[in-house]
Amino acid sequence: MNDIHTIEANIFERLSHVIDPELGRSVTDLGMITSIEAVPSGTVNENGDGIIDVTVHVELTVKDCPLSETITNQINGAVRSYVAPGSPNVTLVPHIEVSSMPQDKLTSLVQTLKAERRQNPFSKPGIKTRIFAIASGKGGVGKSSVTANLAATFAALGYDTAAIDADIYGFSLPRLFGVHTQPTNLNGMLMPVTAWGVKLISIGMFAGADRAILWRGPRLQRSLEQFLSDVWWGEPDVLLLDLAPGTGDMAISVAQALPNAELVVVTTPQPSASDIAVRSGLVALQVPMKVRGVVENMSYYEHKGEKLRIFGEGGGQRVSEQLTAALGHDVPLMAQLPLMPELRETGEEGRPAVLTPEGALASTPLADEFTSLAQQLMELH
Hints:
Layout: H1 4-15, E1 33-44, E2 50-60, H2 68-80, E3 91-100, H3 103-117, E4 130-136, H4 143-156, E5 161-166, H5 173-176, E6 184-186, E7 189-191, E8 193-195, E9 198-202, H6 217-229, E10 238-243, H7 249-257, E11 262-267, H8 271-281, E12 290-296, E13 301-303, E14 306-308, H9 315-327, E15 333-336, H10 341-348, H11 365-378
Parallel strand pairs: 2-3, 4-10, 4-11, 5-9, 5-10, 11-12, 12-15
Antiparallel strand pairs: 1-2, 6-7, 8-9, 13-14
Helix pairs in contact: 4-11, 6-7, 8-9
């Protein structure tokens, strides 16, 4: 039978590939594995190989961690699937002992993580994250629904996706994603809530958020800074921001905090919406933010094979042409999304309409439109 110490060392190496789903680091790097004890059980098979009980002591970062089962299942799998060199018939039986990290150790870990990040992680040179700020000139055009479904599409396509509900006054992403829990507070560092594959943060996740919010200026900007700097995002491939309608404080704050963000303007077809939508795109004349494109929502309603233009037509194209002329670069009309009752119905149920109940991309024209939009956005310009 293999040397017990070698088995313990090999198991520890295997656990270095088990990743904490919130922090995005291996459980060994985070100091969560405090000891591994391999003990032969005394049962020997006909080949001289036996059964070994492997006890793994795990310290979770927070008591009653909501993802503890995910972590322990991965550890169980890593132990059970281990094949001892030279002893293919040895059987390892895992026993996971879970406790909470001592306060001094947790404090040290959080300080280390904060020291690595130090500031808004999305403004660092060389950051790989593509940042898309979803804006509209007025409310009621389905901007948040577009943000939610686009984020869900990115995640379903395999991108590590995050979304910030930057509409402080009219937050709606928690409802659209079916989120009813608060972010985990890890000694002052927040873990975003993950739903439908998307890491989310919103003022609507916190106690008292149902009360009217009357923030202005500096305090509003500070809320965005906290969402960027006090939340452990890792390094996602895509970050979406659902901006408040109009051209107010938050849009300017986003441009200042995230100069590499790309603006996507959402409008509906009628002139009353498209004329105002142009103004949100023109924010780019005042701040360093590129306008990437236009999305026309509620473009048509399909009834018995006929596309009914309930809200008129041409608004998205008008916004595209006016912004292209004003900004001096191509601002294309990237998508024309249909008016669909199921978009509202599934959203109210807490599932983005582009997804099946199992979380995969649906085989629908709507999902195809969002997939095309996501692919266009990820093209380098």
